[in-house]
Design a protein that fits this description.
474 residues, alpha+beta, 24 strands, 24% helix
Length: 474
């Protein structure tokens, strides 16, 4: 009988959706990080319950050909980049498998999924830094990323998937906190001040935000001076958040220095963003994704396009260049304001931005544009499409839908409903018995068929993957 702390030698079968090795041994399925398929490993049992166990690798006895040396010194300590030990070309294959397995297991959909479109920059690609600040067991301030499944901060000075500027920013804020005696926030005692550093690079300019449990911080002018030595052009915000929550930003932003928003250009569209505006973190892959999304949504002759969950309006504006009218629906007020500014800057009189819930405004826009050929693109948050929106889509009669997703699990759920594979039963989603005898690729009338599916590696070295889907009503 296998027990906790046992040492086991076994061969890894596969990689799980969270990047961990899957090892089956004596009737138990173990999840062991940093193991690759085909590798013989020695691991320690950390936890076991029934036929599921968790382990920690002690030694790689027979390395896989795809194994590479991780660049990060805190690999496997920090909870971020769980795939740095896997050759990049193999990461692209793995992420396609993650999407395919999620569709099959969750959505009941069997479909071929091509390898993920690569990032031209597997490291240093992130245009956004979002890093926790706290205290260690001795009460000293630490800046770093959370360990896996915890709020214990692993201290870092730099990060391999962030550009060089992030290392400089971390050093500057650390110096400010030490010299001005500003403490990191202690989640247990609720004492201290700074909780997060959030920064974004936009066209060589930087938006820096300190998230604080206190409305005021001392000597912010000194911090501005330190930042001026590193960054030519930047804005500094103080965000107040004293809530007991995992949400990073509070509602109150105070502009300490600079313009507050910055402007850049992509595919002929001038856009701007503030500290809370959503933009994809990998500009290289974002450009590839948006070009393909535009082909999907603008090649079917739609007169009107609705961009649901539209963020700062960048994709909405690109669509406006090709459609008669386009509507962007976005809940975040700052992002919607940036979209309004983008509309003016680019002279897009056919672009209409709506601030509010998609589930509330989508039916209204569809009713308003009744009689027009409508195209729809949805780019929801990780939680996926609101169930009421999915229901409205099935009732809409729209011929084509384009869906962008950052979460294979919620994507599989939403596609399961849209393709008719999943239906409501006793208050939960269940497999649709009417689909039991359908041939592979066949779809029930009145539901959508998947015409195209393509993953994109927006987040190299991590478990995350972005996916573009084109759906056709049958």
């Amino acid at each position: 009988m296998i027990e906790k702390n046992d040492i086991i030698c076994a061969v890894t079968d596969a990689i799980g959706s969270n990047g961990e090795g899957i090892i089956r041994h004596e009737g138990v399925t173990f999840f062991v990080p940093a193991c690759l398929p085909g590798e013989k490993v020695r691991f320690k049992v950390l936890k076991i319950k029934g036929n599921i166990g968790y382990g920690k690798v002690e030694e790689i006895l027979t390395p896989a050909e795809e194994r590479v040396r991780p660049k990060c010194p805190v690999f496997m300590k920090c909870g971020g980049c769980c795939l740095q030990h896997l050759d990049y070309s193999a990461q692209l294959v793995h992420k396609a498998t993650v999407v395919k397995d999620a569709l099959r297991k969750i959505g009941g959909i069997n479909i071929a999924v091509p390898n993920a479109i690569k990032s031209d920059y597997p490291y240093g690609y992130r245009n956004k830094l979002q890093i926790p600040v706290g205290v260690d067991k001795e009460g000293k301030t630490v800046i770093g990323f959370y360990a896996e499944h915890s709020h214990r901060i692993v201290p870092i000075a730099s990060c391999a998937i962030h550009p060089e500027w992030s290392e400089k920013l971390i050093a500057v804020v650390k110096r400010y906190m030490e010299e001005c005696v500003v403490k990191g926030y202690d989640e247990e005692t609720k004492k201290g001040a700074i909780r997060h550093i959030v920064a974004r690079e936009i066209g060589g300019k930087y938006l820096v935000t300190l998230v604080s449990a206190k409305r005021e911080l001392p000597n912010l002018g000194y911090l501005v001076g330190l930042l001026s030595e590193v960054f030519k052009e930047f804005s500094l915000y103080l965000n107040f958040n004293d809530e007991d929550t995992n949400v990073i930003f509070g509602k109150e932003f105070q502009l300490v220095h600079g313009m507050g928003v910055f402007e850049a250009e992509e595919q002929g569209i001038r856009y701007e963003a503030g500290p809370a505006t959503f933009l994809q973190v990998n500009e290289n892959v974002r450009s590839k994704l948006y070009k393909d999304a535009l082909k999907n949504v603008c090649s079917d002759g739609s007169d009107v396009v609705i961009d649901a969950y539209s963020g700062g309006g960048l994709l909405t504006a690109m669509i406006a260049k090709k459609a008669k009218r386009v509507y962007g629906i976005e809940l975040e007020p700052e992002a919607s304001r940036c979209a309004d500014s983008l509309k003016v800057k680019n002279g897009l009189d056919n672009m209409f931005n709506i601030c509010g819930y998609v589930e509330e405004h989508l039916p209204k826009v569809m009713e308003k544009e009744q009689g027009e050929k409508i195209g729809l693109i949805l780019d929801p948050p990780r939680a996926g499409i609101a169930r009421s929106v999915v229901k409205a889509l099935l009732e809409s009669g729209l011929e084509r839908l384009t869906l962008i997703s950052c979460n294979p699990a919620t994507l599989a759920r939403d596609l399961g409903i849209l393709t008719g594979r999943l239906i409501e039963g006793n208050g939960e989603l269940v497999k649709n018995p009417a689909c039991a005898n359908l041939a592979e690729g066949e779809t029930l009338q009145g539901y959508y068929a998947i015409e195209k599916i393509q993953p994109y590696d927006m987040f190299p070295q991590t478990k995350h993957v972005e996916t573009l889907v084109l759906l056709q009503l049958k």
